[in-house]
Protein backbone atom coordinates (compact mmCIF):
# COMPACT_ATOMS: atom_id res chain seq x y z
CA UNK A 1 0.00 0.00 0.00
CA UNK A 2 2.84 2.42 0.78
CA UNK A 3 4.23 2.13 -2.76
CA UNK A 4 0.86 2.91 -4.28
CA UNK A 5 0.49 5.88 -1.97
CA UNK A 6 3.82 7.27 -3.09
CA UNK A 7 2.80 6.96 -6.73
CA UNK A 8 -0.50 8.69 -6.06
CA UNK A 9 1.26 11.52 -4.25
CA UNK A 10 3.70 11.99 -7.13
CA UNK A 11 0.88 11.92 -9.68
CA UNK A 12 -1.10 14.40 -7.60
CA UNK A 13 1.91 16.72 -7.53
CA UNK A 14 2.18 16.51 -11.30
CA UNK A 15 -1.52 17.15 -11.87
CA UNK A 16 -1.54 20.05 -9.41
CA UNK A 17 0.66 21.98 -11.84
CA UNK A 18 -1.77 21.62 -14.73
CA UNK A 19 -2.51 24.96 -16.31
CA UNK A 20 -4.16 26.39 -19.39
CA UNK A 21 -5.36 23.83 -21.95
CA UNK A 22 -4.19 20.87 -19.93
CA UNK A 23 -0.55 21.26 -18.92
CA UNK A 24 1.39 24.45 -18.39
CA UNK A 25 4.61 22.50 -17.86
CA UNK A 26 4.31 21.08 -21.35
CA UNK A 27 4.19 24.67 -22.53
CA UNK A 28 7.62 25.26 -20.98
CA UNK A 29 9.33 21.97 -21.73
CA UNK A 30 8.15 21.76 -25.32
CA UNK A 31 8.58 25.51 -25.80
CA UNK A 32 5.00 25.85 -26.94
CA UNK A 33 4.92 29.45 -25.70
CA UNK A 34 7.64 30.28 -28.20
CA UNK A 35 9.97 31.50 -25.47
CA UNK A 36 13.44 30.22 -24.69
CA UNK A 37 14.11 29.23 -21.08
CA UNK A 38 17.67 28.77 -19.84
CA UNK A 39 16.33 26.62 -17.01
CA UNK A 40 14.18 24.31 -19.12
CA UNK A 41 15.97 24.33 -22.48
CA UNK A 42 19.55 25.17 -21.53
CA UNK A 43 20.19 21.95 -19.63
CA UNK A 44 20.21 19.92 -22.86
CA UNK A 45 20.74 22.60 -25.47
CA UNK A 46 23.73 24.12 -23.72
CA UNK A 47 24.92 27.41 -25.20
CA UNK A 48 22.58 27.10 -28.19
CA UNK A 49 20.84 30.43 -27.67
CA UNK A 50 24.17 32.28 -27.78
CA UNK A 51 25.21 30.34 -30.87
CA UNK A 52 21.98 31.29 -32.61
CA UNK A 53 22.46 34.92 -31.64
CA UNK A 54 25.84 34.93 -33.37
CA UNK A 55 24.65 33.26 -36.57
CA UNK A 56 24.54 35.24 -39.79
CA UNK A 57 20.78 34.66 -40.01
CA UNK A 58 20.33 36.69 -36.83
CA UNK A 59 23.20 39.17 -37.15
CA UNK A 60 22.06 40.52 -40.49
CA UNK A 61 23.49 43.88 -41.52
CA UNK A 62 20.57 46.33 -41.60
CA UNK A 63 22.69 48.87 -43.43
CA UNK A 64 23.56 46.57 -46.31
CA UNK A 65 21.95 47.96 -49.44
CA UNK A 66 20.28 45.88 -52.17
CA UNK A 67 19.23 47.21 -55.57
CA UNK A 68 16.08 45.07 -55.39
CA UNK A 69 14.77 46.68 -52.20
CA UNK A 70 16.61 50.03 -52.55
CA UNK A 71 16.06 50.64 -48.84
CA UNK A 72 18.02 53.54 -47.37
CA UNK A 73 18.49 53.09 -43.63
CA UNK A 74 19.58 56.66 -42.94
CA UNK A 75 16.54 58.20 -44.61
CA UNK A 76 13.86 55.68 -43.61
CA UNK A 77 15.15 54.69 -40.16
CA UNK A 78 15.80 51.39 -38.38
CA UNK A 79 12.23 50.88 -37.22
CA UNK A 80 10.94 51.03 -40.79
CA UNK A 81 13.49 48.35 -41.69
CA UNK A 82 12.16 46.18 -38.85
CA UNK A 83 8.55 46.66 -39.96
CA UNK A 84 9.34 45.88 -43.60
CA UNK A 85 11.84 43.04 -43.28
CA UNK A 86 11.45 41.83 -39.69
CA UNK A 87 8.77 39.32 -40.66
CA UNK A 88 11.43 37.29 -42.49
CA UNK A 89 13.92 37.62 -39.62
CA UNK A 90 14.17 34.97 -36.84
CA UNK A 91 14.40 37.65 -34.14
CA UNK A 92 17.25 38.75 -31.94
CA UNK A 93 20.13 40.72 -33.44
CA UNK A 94 18.83 44.07 -34.75
CA UNK A 95 15.28 43.13 -33.68
CA UNK A 96 16.23 42.52 -30.04
CA UNK A 97 16.07 46.19 -29.06
CA UNK A 98 12.50 46.27 -30.37
CA UNK A 99 11.48 43.39 -28.11
CA UNK A 100 11.54 40.62 -30.72
CA UNK A 101 13.78 37.87 -29.37
CA UNK A 102 15.07 34.86 -31.27
CA UNK A 103 12.03 32.77 -32.14
CA UNK A 104 13.27 29.17 -32.19
CA UNK A 105 9.83 27.91 -33.18
CA UNK A 106 9.95 29.86 -36.44
CA UNK A 107 12.18 27.03 -37.70
CA UNK A 108 11.55 24.21 -35.23
CA UNK A 109 7.75 24.05 -34.85
CA UNK A 110 6.60 20.62 -36.09
CA UNK A 111 2.79 20.73 -36.21
CA UNK A 112 2.73 22.97 -39.27
CA UNK A 113 0.62 25.43 -37.29
CA UNK A 114 3.16 28.23 -36.84
CA UNK A 115 1.36 31.38 -38.02
CA UNK A 116 3.90 33.45 -39.95
CA UNK A 117 1.22 35.88 -41.08
CA UNK A 118 0.14 36.63 -37.51
CA UNK A 119 3.74 37.35 -36.52
CA UNK A 120 4.29 39.50 -39.61
CA UNK A 121 1.16 41.55 -38.92
CA UNK A 122 2.29 42.23 -35.34
CA UNK A 123 5.72 43.37 -36.53
CA UNK A 124 4.29 45.53 -39.32
CA UNK A 125 2.00 47.20 -36.76
CA UNK A 126 4.83 47.78 -34.30
CA UNK A 127 3.40 45.32 -31.73
CA UNK A 128 6.80 43.75 -31.25
CA UNK A 129 6.40 42.21 -27.78
CA UNK A 130 3.49 40.05 -28.93
CA UNK A 131 4.88 39.02 -32.31
CA UNK A 132 6.44 35.65 -31.47
CA UNK A 133 3.63 34.49 -29.19
CA UNK A 134 1.00 35.43 -31.80
CA UNK A 135 2.57 32.91 -34.18
CA UNK A 136 2.28 30.09 -31.64
CA UNK A 137 -1.38 30.26 -30.58
CA UNK A 138 -2.64 27.32 -32.66
CA UNK A 139 0.51 25.25 -32.31
CA UNK A 140 0.61 25.77 -28.56
CA UNK A 141 -2.96 24.60 -28.16
CA UNK A 142 -2.25 21.47 -30.21
CA UNK A 143 0.81 20.54 -28.15
CA UNK A 144 -0.81 21.16 -24.78
CA UNK A 145 -3.88 19.08 -25.59
CA UNK A 146 -2.07 16.28 -27.40
CA UNK A 147 -2.48 13.13 -25.24
CA UNK A 148 0.94 11.77 -26.21
CA UNK A 149 2.78 14.94 -25.20
CA UNK A 150 0.75 15.09 -21.99
CA UNK A 151 1.67 11.49 -21.13
CA UNK A 152 5.34 11.83 -22.07
CA UNK A 153 5.89 14.88 -19.95
CA UNK A 154 4.21 13.44 -16.87
CA UNK A 155 5.90 10.07 -17.34
CA UNK A 156 9.15 11.96 -17.46
CA UNK A 157 8.42 13.31 -13.97
CA UNK A 158 8.63 9.73 -12.73
CA UNK A 159 11.35 8.43 -15.09
CA UNK A 160 13.99 11.05 -15.86
CA UNK A 161 14.64 11.74 -19.50
CA UNK A 162 13.93 8.62 -21.61
CA UNK A 163 10.51 9.26 -23.12
CA UNK A 164 11.08 12.97 -23.55
CA UNK A 165 14.01 12.32 -25.90
CA UNK A 166 11.84 10.02 -28.04
CA UNK A 167 8.89 12.39 -28.48
CA UNK A 168 10.61 15.77 -28.23
CA UNK A 169 11.05 16.11 -31.99
CA UNK A 170 7.32 15.74 -32.55
CA UNK A 171 6.99 19.26 -31.18
CA UNK A 172 10.44 20.86 -31.45
CA UNK A 173 12.26 18.96 -34.21
CA UNK A 174 14.76 19.85 -36.92
CA UNK A 175 13.81 22.53 -39.46
CA UNK A 176 11.96 21.37 -42.56
CA UNK A 177 12.00 22.79 -46.06
CA UNK A 178 8.52 24.13 -45.36
CA UNK A 179 9.72 26.50 -42.65
CA UNK A 180 12.85 27.48 -44.59
CA UNK A 181 11.49 27.92 -48.08
CA UNK A 182 7.76 28.45 -48.05
CA UNK A 183 7.83 31.34 -45.59
CA UNK A 184 11.23 33.01 -45.10
CA UNK A 185 13.03 32.37 -48.39
CA UNK A 186 9.94 32.63 -50.52
CA UNK A 187 11.27 36.05 -51.55
CA UNK A 188 13.98 34.28 -53.57
CA UNK A 189 11.43 33.50 -56.28
CA UNK A 190 11.96 36.81 -58.05
CA UNK A 191 15.76 36.43 -57.99
CA UNK A 192 16.30 32.77 -58.81
CA UNK A 193 12.95 31.39 -60.04
CA UNK A 194 12.85 28.75 -57.32
CA UNK A 195 9.58 26.85 -57.20
CA UNK A 196 9.77 25.76 -53.56
CA UNK A 197 6.78 27.88 -52.53
CA UNK A 198 4.62 24.94 -53.58
CA UNK A 199 5.76 21.54 -52.37
CA UNK A 200 3.97 19.76 -55.20
CA UNK A 201 5.47 21.98 -57.91
CA UNK A 202 8.91 21.88 -56.41
CA UNK A 203 8.93 18.09 -56.40
CA UNK A 204 8.10 18.18 -60.11
CA UNK A 205 10.88 20.66 -60.89
CA UNK A 206 13.69 19.60 -58.54
CA UNK A 207 15.13 16.09 -58.24
CA UNK A 208 16.36 16.69 -54.68
CA UNK A 209 12.90 17.77 -53.58
CA UNK A 210 11.35 14.77 -55.29
CA UNK A 211 13.75 12.51 -53.36
CA UNK A 212 12.78 14.13 -50.04
CA UNK A 213 16.06 15.92 -49.34
CA UNK A 214 15.67 18.53 -46.60
CA UNK A 215 17.38 21.93 -46.82
CA UNK A 216 19.61 21.22 -43.82
CA UNK A 217 21.06 18.13 -45.48
CA UNK A 218 22.93 20.29 -48.00
CA UNK A 219 23.12 23.52 -45.99
CA UNK A 220 24.97 21.61 -43.34
CA UNK A 221 27.88 22.55 -41.09
CA UNK A 222 28.65 20.84 -37.78
CA UNK A 223 25.54 19.10 -36.48
CA UNK A 224 25.01 17.23 -33.26
CA UNK A 225 22.06 15.37 -31.74
CA UNK A 226 21.54 17.83 -28.89
CA UNK A 227 23.06 21.07 -30.09
CA UNK A 228 24.42 22.74 -33.17
CA UNK A 229 26.35 25.85 -34.01
CA UNK A 230 23.31 27.05 -36.03
CA UNK A 231 25.59 28.58 -38.63
CA UNK A 232 23.58 27.24 -41.55
CA UNK A 233 25.89 26.11 -44.33
CA UNK A 234 25.98 28.25 -47.45
CA UNK A 235 28.10 29.01 -50.43
CA UNK A 236 29.25 32.42 -51.50
CA UNK A 237 26.30 33.43 -53.66
CA UNK A 238 26.31 36.44 -55.95
CA UNK A 239 23.09 37.81 -54.47
CA UNK A 240 24.46 37.90 -50.91
CA UNK A 241 28.26 38.13 -51.21
CA UNK A 242 30.37 37.57 -48.12
CA UNK A 243 31.70 40.57 -46.30
CA UNK A 244 35.39 40.29 -45.30
CA UNK A 245 34.58 39.43 -41.69
CA UNK A 246 32.10 36.65 -42.46
CA UNK A 247 33.34 34.35 -45.24
CA UNK A 248 30.77 31.61 -45.04
CA UNK A 249 31.52 30.28 -48.49
CA UNK A 250 32.46 26.60 -48.64
CA UNK A 251 30.52 25.89 -45.43
CA UNK A 252 27.88 23.78 -47.15
CA UNK A 253 28.10 20.40 -48.83
CA UNK A 254 29.18 20.20 -52.44
CA UNK A 255 27.60 17.86 -54.99
CA UNK A 256 30.44 15.35 -54.66
CA UNK A 257 30.48 15.45 -50.87
CA UNK A 258 30.97 12.07 -49.16
CA UNK A 259 27.36 12.21 -47.94
CA UNK A 260 25.94 13.02 -51.37
CA UNK A 261 27.22 12.09 -54.82
CA UNK A 262 30.78 11.00 -54.07
CA UNK A 263 32.11 8.70 -56.75
CA UNK A 264 29.77 9.85 -59.50
CA UNK A 265 31.20 9.72 -63.01
CA UNK A 266 29.91 10.84 -66.39
CA UNK A 267 32.77 9.14 -68.18
CA UNK A 268 36.34 10.42 -68.59
CA UNK A 269 35.55 12.93 -71.33
CA UNK A 270 32.72 14.64 -69.44
CA UNK A 271 34.53 14.35 -66.09
CA UNK A 272 37.39 16.42 -67.47
CA UNK A 273 34.95 19.34 -67.64
CA UNK A 274 34.46 19.36 -63.86
CA UNK A 275 37.55 21.52 -63.36
CA UNK A 276 35.82 24.48 -64.99
CA UNK A 277 32.14 23.56 -65.08
CA UNK A 278 29.79 23.69 -62.09
CA UNK A 279 27.38 20.74 -61.86
CA UNK A 280 24.47 23.19 -61.86
CA UNK A 281 25.48 24.48 -65.31
CA UNK A 282 24.20 21.26 -66.89
CA UNK A 283 21.64 20.31 -64.25
CA UNK A 284 19.72 23.62 -64.35
CA UNK A 285 19.10 23.84 -68.11
CA UNK A 286 15.84 25.79 -67.70
CA UNK A 287 14.03 27.77 -65.05
CA UNK A 288 10.27 28.19 -64.68
CA UNK A 289 8.69 31.46 -65.71
CA UNK A 290 5.26 32.89 -65.09
CA UNK A 291 3.32 32.85 -61.82
CA UNK A 292 4.99 30.73 -59.14
CA UNK A 293 4.08 30.39 -55.47
CA UNK A 294 5.65 33.53 -54.04
CA UNK A 295 5.71 35.63 -57.19
CA UNK A 296 7.29 35.72 -60.64
CA UNK A 297 10.97 35.66 -61.63
CA UNK A 298 12.18 39.14 -62.50
CA UNK A 299 13.58 40.14 -65.87
CA UNK A 300 14.02 43.89 -65.26
CA UNK A 301 13.23 46.44 -62.58
CA UNK A 302 13.53 50.22 -62.47
CA UNK A 303 13.49 52.77 -59.65
CA UNK A 304 13.82 55.69 -62.05
CA UNK A 305 10.56 57.35 -61.04
CA UNK A 306 10.55 56.55 -57.32
CA UNK A 307 8.55 53.30 -57.46
CA UNK A 308 9.86 49.92 -58.55
CA UNK A 309 8.52 49.09 -62.01
CA UNK A 310 9.05 45.45 -62.99
CA UNK A 311 8.93 43.18 -66.00
CA UNK A 312 8.85 39.43 -65.52
CA UNK A 313 9.87 36.25 -67.25
CA UNK A 314 6.49 34.97 -68.31
CA UNK A 315 7.80 31.81 -70.02
CA UNK A 316 10.27 29.14 -68.96
CA UNK A 317 13.75 30.43 -69.69
CA UNK A 318 17.37 29.37 -69.98
CA UNK A 319 19.63 30.74 -67.23
CA UNK A 320 22.66 32.76 -68.26
CA UNK A 321 26.01 30.97 -67.95
CA UNK A 322 29.00 32.95 -66.72
CA UNK A 323 32.35 32.46 -64.99
CA UNK A 324 32.23 32.74 -61.22
CA UNK A 325 34.35 32.12 -58.12
CA UNK A 326 32.43 34.08 -55.50
CA UNK A 327 31.79 37.73 -54.67
CA UNK A 328 33.36 39.36 -51.64
CA UNK A 329 32.72 42.72 -50.04
CA UNK A 330 30.05 45.35 -50.54
CA UNK A 331 29.48 44.86 -54.27
CA UNK A 332 26.63 44.31 -56.70
CA UNK A 333 25.68 40.78 -57.81
CA UNK A 334 28.33 40.26 -60.48
CA UNK A 335 30.31 37.58 -62.29
CA UNK A 336 33.94 37.05 -63.24
CA UNK A 337 35.81 36.51 -66.49
CA UNK A 338 37.35 33.48 -68.13
CA UNK A 339 40.86 34.48 -67.06
CA UNK A 340 40.08 34.98 -63.36
CA UNK A 341 41.33 32.54 -60.73
CA UNK A 342 39.42 29.36 -59.81
CA UNK A 343 36.39 30.27 -61.89
CA UNK A 344 33.73 27.83 -63.05
CA UNK A 345 30.90 28.20 -65.54
CA UNK A 346 27.84 28.76 -63.34
CA UNK A 347 24.16 29.49 -64.07
CA UNK A 348 22.49 32.80 -63.17
CA UNK A 349 19.26 34.69 -63.55
CA UNK A 350 20.41 37.86 -65.27
CA UNK A 351 18.21 40.76 -64.09
CA UNK A 352 18.65 44.28 -65.46
CA UNK A 353 18.20 46.89 -62.73
CA UNK A 354 17.91 50.69 -62.94
CA UNK A 355 18.36 53.20 -60.09
CA UNK A 356 19.74 56.64 -59.35
CA UNK A 357 23.22 57.19 -57.90
CA UNK A 358 24.71 60.38 -56.45
CA UNK A 359 27.85 60.02 -58.54
CA UNK A 360 30.21 60.51 -55.61
CA UNK A 361 32.10 57.28 -56.41
CA UNK A 362 34.57 58.04 -59.24
CA UNK A 363 34.29 54.49 -60.60
CA UNK A 364 30.51 54.67 -60.74
CA UNK A 365 30.60 58.16 -62.26
CA UNK A 366 32.94 56.98 -65.01
CA UNK A 367 31.21 53.64 -65.69
CA UNK A 368 27.73 53.73 -64.12
CA UNK A 369 26.41 50.74 -66.08
CA UNK A 370 29.40 48.40 -65.78
CA UNK A 371 30.90 49.16 -62.36
CA UNK A 372 30.12 46.54 -59.68
CA UNK A 373 30.52 49.08 -56.87
CA UNK A 374 27.32 49.77 -54.94
CA UNK A 375 28.23 53.44 -55.11
CA UNK A 376 26.00 55.99 -53.36
CA UNK A 377 22.34 55.22 -54.24
CA UNK A 378 19.92 58.13 -53.94
CA UNK A 379 17.08 57.42 -51.44
CA UNK A 380 13.72 56.67 -53.03
CA UNK A 381 11.90 59.52 -51.17
CA UNK A 382 14.35 61.98 -52.72
CA UNK A 383 13.79 60.52 -56.18
CA UNK A 384 10.04 60.96 -55.81
CA UNK A 385 10.46 64.54 -54.59
CA UNK A 386 12.78 65.39 -57.49
CA UNK A 387 9.89 65.16 -59.97
CA UNK A 388 9.58 68.93 -60.17
CA UNK A 389 6.90 69.10 -62.88
CA UNK A 390 4.88 66.25 -61.36
CA UNK A 391 4.60 64.29 -64.60
CA UNK A 392 5.61 61.00 -62.94
CA UNK A 393 8.95 60.82 -64.77
CA UNK A 394 12.23 61.87 -63.15
CA UNK A 395 14.83 63.23 -65.56
CA UNK A 396 18.56 63.68 -65.12
CA UNK A 397 18.07 67.44 -65.03
CA UNK A 398 15.47 67.17 -62.26
CA UNK A 399 17.58 64.78 -60.20
CA UNK A 400 20.74 66.89 -60.51
CA UNK A 401 18.84 70.05 -59.55
CA UNK A 402 17.02 68.58 -56.53
CA UNK A 403 17.57 70.43 -53.24
CA UNK A 404 16.64 67.97 -50.49
CA UNK A 405 17.58 70.07 -47.46
CA UNK A 406 16.37 73.42 -48.83
CA UNK A 407 19.72 75.21 -48.49
CA UNK A 408 19.63 76.53 -52.03
CA UNK A 409 22.24 74.06 -53.26
CA UNK A 410 21.59 70.96 -55.36
CA UNK A 411 22.23 67.81 -53.33
CA UNK A 412 23.02 65.54 -56.27
CA UNK A 413 24.73 67.66 -58.95
CA UNK A 414 26.52 64.56 -60.32
CA UNK A 415 23.50 62.25 -60.22
CA UNK A 416 23.56 59.44 -62.77
CA UNK A 417 20.94 56.90 -63.74
CA UNK A 418 22.53 53.45 -63.58
CA UNK A 419 21.28 50.50 -65.64
CA UNK A 420 23.23 47.41 -64.63
CA UNK A 421 23.10 43.73 -65.53
CA UNK A 422 22.86 41.97 -62.16
CA UNK A 423 23.65 38.27 -61.86
CA UNK A 424 21.72 36.27 -59.27
CA UNK A 425 23.12 32.78 -58.91
CA UNK A 426 20.70 29.87 -59.25
CA UNK A 427 21.30 26.65 -57.33
CA UNK A 428 17.89 24.97 -57.13
CA UNK A 429 15.48 23.39 -59.60
CA UNK A 430 18.09 20.68 -60.15
CA UNK A 431 16.96 18.31 -62.88
CA UNK A 432 17.72 14.64 -63.45
CA UNK A 433 16.96 12.37 -66.38
CA UNK A 434 13.36 11.96 -65.16
CA UNK A 435 12.64 15.03 -62.97
CA UNK A 436 12.53 18.68 -64.03
CA UNK A 437 11.21 20.94 -66.76
CA UNK A 438 14.04 19.96 -69.15
CA UNK A 439 16.69 17.27 -69.44
CA UNK A 440 20.24 17.91 -68.22
CA UNK A 441 22.56 19.29 -70.88
CA UNK A 442 24.47 16.79 -72.99
CA UNK A 443 27.38 17.38 -75.35
CA UNK A 444 25.19 18.49 -78.28
CA UNK A 445 23.52 21.13 -76.12
CA UNK A 446 26.86 22.83 -75.59
CA UNK A 447 28.78 21.99 -78.76
CA UNK A 448 28.02 21.77 -82.45
CA UNK A 449 25.34 23.23 -84.69
CA UNK A 450 22.51 22.65 -82.18
CA UNK A 451 24.31 24.21 -79.21
CA UNK A 452 22.34 26.58 -76.97
CA UNK A 453 25.42 28.01 -75.25
CA UNK A 454 26.50 31.60 -75.95
CA UNK A 455 30.24 31.02 -76.24
CA UNK A 456 30.99 34.67 -77.02
CA UNK A 457 29.54 35.74 -73.65
CA UNK A 458 31.93 33.26 -72.00
CA UNK A 459 34.93 34.88 -73.67
CA UNK A 460 35.39 32.60 -76.70
CA UNK A 461 35.47 33.61 -80.34
CA UNK A 462 33.82 30.31 -81.30
CA UNK A 463 32.78 26.95 -79.88
CA UNK A 464 36.01 25.62 -78.28
CA UNK A 465 34.87 22.02 -78.62
CA UNK A 466 33.82 22.10 -82.24
CA UNK A 467 31.27 20.00 -84.05
CA UNK A 468 32.99 16.73 -83.19
CA UNK A 469 32.36 17.20 -79.46
CA UNK A 470 28.61 17.07 -80.01
CA UNK A 471 28.65 13.36 -80.84
CA UNK A 472 30.04 12.27 -77.48
CA UNK A 473 27.73 10.44 -75.11
CA UNK A 474 27.34 10.81 -71.35
CA UNK A 475 26.84 7.80 -69.13
CA UNK A 476 26.33 8.24 -65.40
CA UNK A 477 27.89 5.75 -63.04
CA UNK A 478 28.95 5.52 -59.40
CA UNK A 479 31.99 3.89 -57.86
CA UNK A 480 29.60 2.85 -55.10
CA UNK A 481 25.79 2.64 -54.77
CA UNK A 482 23.82 5.86 -54.97
CA UNK A 483 24.00 7.53 -51.54
CA UNK A 484 21.11 6.74 -49.25
CA UNK A 485 20.96 10.24 -47.81
CA UNK A 486 18.88 11.62 -50.65
CA UNK A 487 16.25 8.97 -49.95
CA UNK A 488 15.87 9.22 -46.18
CA UNK A 489 14.87 11.69 -43.50
CA UNK A 490 17.74 13.76 -42.04
CA UNK A 491 19.61 12.13 -39.17
CA UNK A 492 19.75 15.27 -37.03
Roughly how much helix do the residues carry, as a percent range? 25-40%
Low-pLDDT parts are: 4-22, 223-227, 480-492
Order of helices and strands: HHHHHHHHHHHHHHHHHEHHEEEEHHHEHE
Radius of gyration: 26 Å
Residues in β-strands, percent: 5-15%
The largest β sheet comes out as: 5 strands, mixed
Beta strands, count: 7
Q: What do the pLDDT scores average to?
A: 84
Descriptors for this entry?
7 strands, 5-stranded mixed β-sheet, 492 residues, single chain, disordered C terminus, two-stranded antiparallel ribbon, alpha+beta, 23 helices
Protein architecture, described:
By secondary structure, this protein is an alpha+beta fold. It is 29% helix and 9% strand. It contains 23 helices and seven strands. It has helices at 2-16, 24-29, 48-53, 73-76, 78-85, 105-108, 116-124, 131-135, 137-145, 147-158, 162-167, 169-172, 177-184, 189-192, 199-205, 207-210, 215-218, 268-271, 279-283, 362-366, 380-385, 396-401, 443-446, and strands at 264-265, 298-302, 309-312, 320-324, 344-357, 416-425, 477-478. The strands form two sheets. Strands 2, 3, 4, 5 and 6 form a five-stranded mixed beta sheet that branches. β2 and β3 (309-312) form a beta hairpin. The longest helix is centred in the first third of the chain and has 15 residues, at 2-16. The protein is flat. It starts with a helix and ends in a 14-residue tail after the last strand. Residues 4-22, 223-227 and 480-492 have low confidence and may be disordered.
Amino acid sequence: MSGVAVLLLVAAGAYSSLGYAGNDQIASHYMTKGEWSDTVCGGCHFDVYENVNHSYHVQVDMDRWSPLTNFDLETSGEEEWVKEFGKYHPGGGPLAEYGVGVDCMMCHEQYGLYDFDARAEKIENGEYDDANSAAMVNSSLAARTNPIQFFVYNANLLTPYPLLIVFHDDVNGAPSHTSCAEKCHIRNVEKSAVSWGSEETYEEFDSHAEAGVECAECHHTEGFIITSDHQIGRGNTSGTPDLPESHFDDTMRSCDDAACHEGISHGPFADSHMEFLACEACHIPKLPGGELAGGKPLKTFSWQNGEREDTYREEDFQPALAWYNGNFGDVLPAVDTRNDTDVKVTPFNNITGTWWDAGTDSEVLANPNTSISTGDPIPVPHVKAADADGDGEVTVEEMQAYDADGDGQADYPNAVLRTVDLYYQVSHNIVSSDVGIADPYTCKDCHGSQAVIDWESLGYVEDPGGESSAVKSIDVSYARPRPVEVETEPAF
